[in-house]
TrEMBL record:
<feature type="region of interest" description="Disordered">
    <location>
        <begin position="292"/>
        <end position="335"/>
    </location>
</feature>
<feature type="compositionally biased region" description="Acidic residues">
    <location>
        <begin position="708"/>
        <end position="718"/>
    </location>
</feature>
<feature type="region of interest" description="Disordered">
    <location>
        <begin position="704"/>
        <end position="762"/>
    </location>
</feature>
<feature type="compositionally biased region" description="Low complexity">
    <location>
        <begin position="305"/>
        <end position="326"/>
    </location>
</feature>
<feature type="compositionally biased region" description="Acidic residues">
    <location>
        <begin position="751"/>
        <end position="762"/>
    </location>
</feature>
<dbReference type="InterPro" id="IPR046112">
    <property type="entry name" value="DUF6049"/>
</dbReference>
<keyword id="KW-0472">Membrane</keyword>
<protein>
    <submittedName>
        <fullName>DUF6049 family protein</fullName>
    </submittedName>
</protein>
<keyword id="KW-0812">Transmembrane</keyword>
<dbReference type="Pfam" id="PF19516">
    <property type="entry name" value="DUF6049"/>
</dbReference>
<feature type="transmembrane region" description="Helical">
    <location>
        <begin position="678"/>
        <end position="697"/>
    </location>
</feature>
<feature type="compositionally biased region" description="Acidic residues">
    <location>
        <begin position="732"/>
        <end position="743"/>
    </location>
</feature>
<keyword id="KW-1133">Transmembrane helix</keyword>
Length: 762
């Protein structure tokens, strides 16, 4: 048979001389850095019909450090169809397959010199009639290859097409699971802004619902999405509230995932058996559920009204209580169960992360209440190997299971996560070929397969809809509800097998253990907050979000996110600090040391401040409990008693109200001069005594030195006046208030020196 002519082999871009000419062609991560790659992307999801055209896009990607010379692209097609899944797997993995031993050339196209980092795109179009494919034999998948020759460089790209002459086929059944999950993050909830952007017309979550609406896909729903909307109360964006109503009205089968799609298998690998369920109701803002201005509410009443008995325990009164309209002082907040509620059609389904189960995990899932488990094919070893693709229904170690088709799942994931139409078409061609090969294995015995789309929200969710639609439209596959994957529904006996343990990521395990230690620490210092339970719930929910199954796709990014959680807990504990100060001069035997404590956190705290001297020169009193507002500083006065004189050092320690130490102790130098107090008091008393003596002597001298005859009554009056002045001075020495002032003067001076903030404080 003659080689068919290539009707058009024209590069879609001019042959580039530099990377600036290649802006229209996106960089492709499928080619490793430092390599030259060839990507083959058949149009129309690789389906070719009589009278149509085989349209193929070939991308030559140069991710090396040097330019490659001009060359040529040669397109070939296998002589015969791909007949088994094994042969298809060999082909897609770049191996040599005996069933695809000969190929025929479909034509060539030139490729110009390609600069380092550049991509050239070649578009080929071939008339289907020139291929000579047999119409009578029905649909069949064929191997497609593009070979690049550029100087000494030789590279190839592989794909496949399915010839569909339109003859009748018995399709396989395909059930699909679509996760409805929140974008990955570390916060307990999505923000109002994130929800509005995701649920507005054309937003990611809105498009996801558009994609599943009208399909038979089963929905795996993450409660975090729903709770994020409900916890906002009246402040929830209207788009988000409408989206939630729309989700709950869908007739699709559904089941609930753990909150934030928690990776319970990673927790099990890390030895965590009691991961907490955060009480999300503690994180609700009462203002979001308060009635509008002037709105009245009726308190909930029944025939039985609890009343407090003298002992404090509730008693029940059977007399009915009349409901009286009143403005609600404390709004009714949703419960934890109400926030997490998923109105699902199925329950007791566990869906572990791909290839994550190990020995004993099935028993753990069964003990947690699961009756059916969804398993990755690589995580299962079947008791009997078969040359044919088995149905999804299985009994694995005595537990009802559905085993997903790995190759189909990878193709579906690539299609849903596609970055361009060409990339989607290439992935769709692989997906179509897998299903065609599976249907041709046993054309009279259709199987029921199970696949799932990625657990994360796709970057371009419009490709989710295209993928689900294609699965339903292919002549060799038919979508069915999840319920029809059960053995009694598909009429086939389930295969049996056991768990093939997946690899344990010890780096992740170590990080989880660090996170659990941080959680224990958070529970310990939470008592310094006004609402400890609210803080702990916040940390627990953030921890669950950072342990989502979706993080398995990128360990590096996950380590960064979990480090943020560790940093958050540490910053909360060290948000309350003792402000460094200069040396304190302590004059007297008893005084109060002034210590400044700062709260740089966002919550009000109550802490104990304690001074612990490192020598016996000082004896301390009881710790002082102080309250510090967010972003402010408060002074504590710590009572001490001087035992001796000299320079000593002590540590100012902060503790929670229940005595747990927080932050790092701050050292404080104290110069003790207890004798100065006695010296100062003695000097003051001596001065007072001198004044008294001087006043008395002066009075006596005036009396004796006066002329009694000449002065008369005037002299007597003068003497009396001076006598009164002396008495006043003497009386003043005996007043207790002035003595206290005199006694306290050194203390006041020391306090002024001590209370003066250091240079750091200023």
């Amino acid at each position: 048979m003659p080689t068919p002519a290539v009707e058009a082999a024209v590069p879609s871009l001019a042959v580039p001389q530099n990377t600036d000419d290649l802006a229209a062609v996106p960089a492709n991560p499928d080619v490793p850095d430092g390599q030259v790659g060839v990507l083959v992307e058949p149009a129309n999801h690789g389906e070719l019909t009589p009278g149509g055209k085989l349209e193929v896009t070939v991308d030559v990607v140069n991710r090396s450090r040097e330019a490659i010379p001009a060359g040529r692209i040669t397109l070939t097609l296998s002589d015969g169809p791909i007949t088994t899944r094994y042969a298809l797997e060999e082909w897609t993995q770049g191996q040599t397959s005996e069933s695809i031993s000969t190929e025929r050339s479909l034509g060539e196209a030139p490729v110009g010199e390609l600069a380092a980092g550049a991509t050239a795109r070649v578009e080929l179009e071939i008339d289907a009639t020139s291929l000579g494919l047999d119409v009578a034999n029905g649909y069949a998948p064929y191997a497609l290859r593009a070979n690049l020759t550029a100087g000494a460089i030789q590279r190839e790209g592989r794909s496949s097409i399915v010839w569909n002459p339109g003859t009748a086929a018995i399709p396989n059944r395909v059930a699909t699971i679509v996760p409805i999950t929140a974008p990955l993050g570390r916060t307990p909830f999505l923000t109002a802004q994130e929800l509005a952007a995701a649920t507005v017309d054309g937003g990611d979550l809105d498009v996801v619902l558009d994609s599943v609406e009208g399909t038979k896909a089963a929905l795996a729903i993450d409660p975090r999405v729903l709770a994020s909307i409900r916890v906002l109360g009246k402040d929830a964006p209207p788009e988000a509230a409408a989206w939630l109503e729309r989700l709950e009205a869908l007739p699709n089968e559904s089941f609930a995932l753990p909150y934030a799609d928690l990776d319970t298998e990673l927790l099990a690998d890390s030895g965590v058996t009691d991961f907490p369920t955060a009480d999300l109701s503690l994180l609700a803002d009462p203002e979001a559920f308060a009635p509008a201005d002037g709105e009245q509410t009726l308190p909930a009443t029944t025939g039985d009204t609890p009343n407090a008995s003298p002992s404090g325990s509730p008693t029940t009164s059977t007399s009915p209580t009349e409901a009286t309209p009143s403005v609600a002082d404390s709004p009714s907040l949703p419960s934890n169960e109400e926030l997490r509620k998923v109105t699902a059609t199925m329950d007791a389904i566990a869906w572990p992360a791909a290839n994550s189960l190990g020995d004993g995990d099935l028993e753990r899932l069964r003990n947690e209440g699961a009756t059916t488990v969804l398993l990755d094919g690589n995580n299962v070893a079947l008791d009997e190997e078969s040359p044919w693709t088995p149905s999804t229904a299985a009994t694995i170690q005595g537990m009802d299971a559905r085993v997903m088709d790995d190759a189909l799942g990878r193709a579906v994931s690539r299609a849903v996560n596609a970055e361009s139409d060409e990339a989607w078409s290439a992935a769709a061609a692989e997906m179509s070929t897998i299903l065609a090969v599976t249907a041709r294995e046993l054309p009279q015995s259709p199987r029921t397969l199970l696949t799932a789309t990625p657990r994360n929200v796709p970057t371009h969710p419009e490709y989710l809809g295209k993928t689900l639609k294609l699965l339903d439209e292919l002549a060799w596959s038919d979508t069915v509800p999840f319920a029809e994957t059960a053995p009694r529904a598909n009429g086939q006996d389930p295969v049996t097998g056991s768990i093939l343990p997946g690899d344990v990521d010890h780096v992740r395990v170590e990080r989880v253990q660090q996170l659990m230690t941080a959680l224990d620490e958070a529970r310990g210092f939470a008592t310094m907050y006004e609402d400890p339970k609210e803080f702990v719930a916040d940390v627990e929910a953030a921890l669950a979000t950072s342990l989502a199954s979706g993080w398995r796709r990128d360990r590096g990014e996950w380590l960064g996110v979990t480090q943020n959680v560790l940093n958050y807990v540490a910053s909360c504990e060290h948000a309350v600090v003792v402000v460094p100060t200069s040396d304190i001069q302590l004059v007297g035997t008893e005084a109060a040391l002034p210590v400044f404590v700062q709260n740089v956190g966002s919550r009000r705290v109550e802490v104990q401040v304690e001074f612990v001297p490192r020598s016996s020169l000082l004896k301390t009193g009881e710790p002082q409990i102080i309250t510090i507002e967010p972003g402010s500083m408060t002074r504590a006065h710590l009572s001490v008693t001087a035992i001796g004189n000299g320079l000593t050092t002590g540590d100012v320690i902060l503790k929670t109200p229940d005595g747990r130490q927080i932050s790092t102790p701050q050292s404080l130098n104290v110069n003790v001069r207890a004798e100065l107090e006695a010296v100062g008091i003695g000097i003051i008393l001596a001065v007072i005594a001198v004044l008294l003596v001087a006043g008395t002597i002066r009075t006596i001298r005036r009396r004796r030195g006066g002329d009694a005859d000449d002065a008369g009554d005037a002299g007597d009056d003068t003497a009396a006046e001076h006598s009164d002045e002396g008495n006043n001075v003497a009386d003043g020495a005996d007043e207790p208030q002035d003595a206290e002032v005199a006694d306290e003067a050194p203390h006041d001076e020391a306090a002024e020196l001590s209370d003066e903030p250091s240079e750091t404080e200023r």
